[in-house]
Every structure is written in C-alpha cells, then in structure tokens.
Design brief:
2 domains; about 20% helix; single chain; about 150 residues; 3 helices; alpha+beta; two-stranded antiparallel sheet; 8 strands
Length: about 150
C-alpha cells in the first residue's frame, strides 16, 4: 500500500485529499482563513466511508436524477426540467448536509448547465463541495477531541 503524501499544499493552494486511503484520513489539519495549517498532527482519525469515499451517513440527494460525483471537490448534481425545482432540492440537500456536518459545508462554486439530449432533464445544477466535508472529516475531528485524543 502506498504511503500518504508527507506535505500539505503551499499556502493559498487548495488542499487535495490523497486518493487510495478511503477509510482513514491521514493528516487532517485545522487551517486559518488564509488556508495555512495552524497545527498538524501525526494522529490518524478513522472515518466511516463508503466505496467512493463519502461518509456513510452523509445525506444523499433524494431524487434519482441527482448525484454526488467523484472529484476532489465533488459536484453534487441536481437535474430537472424545472430549474426552480432543481434549485429547491439543492437548497434542501445543502441544509441537511450542513445540519449533519455541524458547520457550513465548503461549497466553492454553483454551476448551472443544461442537457438538450432527448429524454434527459434539461437543467443541471451542481454544487462543487469539499471532499473532506462530504467524507465527514470535521465530524471525526470533533469526535476525536471529545474522546480526549485531539487529532488536530
């Protein structure tokens, strides 16, 4: 098994979680507003993730046309022929995910696209969300602190 990376991105760079370590977050850090790590720990924090690296108890988009996609900042996609319906489902999902996470979800972009292929929902609303948030890393960090073994 490969080792996780030993360093974090340069200050101001977007952290990209290591691939190939779906069950354990290897060096979660607590960053200041500029993205600089305040404290880095060598402790391992266990995460309960599914086969694609999402927390098993993360609320999933409720409609079969919606999905959480797979990239470091994952698009959570809401598809519908009615734009207000897609936006409403996106807002409901975002509220439930933030309630679950216990803090604001890191969303770096909202993307609107369309698909004019026959039979496909016309509108595609995508929320580009931080993969660590979708994996439940902040929850694991709080649990580790509550258990008396700070991971960050």
């Amino acid at each position: 098994m490969a080792e996780p990376p030993d360093s974090f991105p340069a200050p101001g760079a977007t952290p990209v979680p290591a691939r190939g370590f779906p069950r354990t977050a290897q060096r979660l850090h607590n960053a200041d507003a500029a993205g600089h790590p305040r404290h880095v720990s060598e402790k391992t924090v266990e995460l309960d993730l599914d086969e694609v690296g999402l927390a098993t108890d993360l609320p999933r988009p409720p409609d079969s046309r919606d999905e959480v996609q797979q990239v470091p900042y994952r698009p959570v996609q809401f598809r519908d022929d009615d734009l207000p319906s897609a936006l409403e489902r996106a807002a409901r999902w975002l509220r439930s995910a933030q309630d679950w996470l216990g803090e604001p979800l890191d969303v770096i972009a909202v993307h609107l696209d369309y698909d004019d292929r026959a039979g496909a929902p016309y509108y595609e609303v995508k929320l580009l969300c931080n993969e660590e948030d979708l994996a439940g890393a902040p929850i694991a960090m709080r649990r580790a602190v509550q258990d008396g073994s700070p991971a960050g």
